[in-house]
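Entry details:
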Amino acid sequence: MSQPKARPEGEAVGELVLTGGVVARAPAGYCVDASAASGPGISRRVAVMASCDRVSGKGQGADVPSAVLTVTVGRLHVLGTADVDAQALAAAFADQGPRAAKGGEDLVVVQLEKGGDLAVPGASPVHWRGVLHVGPRLVGLAVYVPKGSALVGARGGDLLRDLAASVRDASVIARRSEDLVADTDG
């Protein structure tokens, strides 16, 4: 995947608070490009991540596989918990050749054969998508990688699950902090 040169003014942060208190926290070695989420007309519903050195433009940071990760916050109560399972997610992406769809308690993951190169120029068509429940919201996750990357296979699914765990854990911590502040304000 020919990634564009990182902007020297790119703002690499570890996490970014999105709509509804969802915290887009990057997995180890990756950073959120805060400048991509703060421009005019761009809502705080989407966070884009890549390796920290790529986002910051400094050429330093952990040596992690090249990837573009996204976190997208959906509206409140779009679907109930029981409505999103591996079969439903695979059906939603039927035109992209779903395979390896797996569901868990609050996360559903699917590997797709097509479309990654349309979302990120130079990426492999094969990519990973997921849906995570964070409170009353559905959060869409995606991992796009270069053609030939080891992350095209099962390791890409592992990275998506790491991203989901980071978002879930950070969002729970943020909610608990808000609850503590609310309890002490009253």
Q: What stands out?
A: Helices lie at 34-37, 52-56, 86-92, 116-119, 154-185.
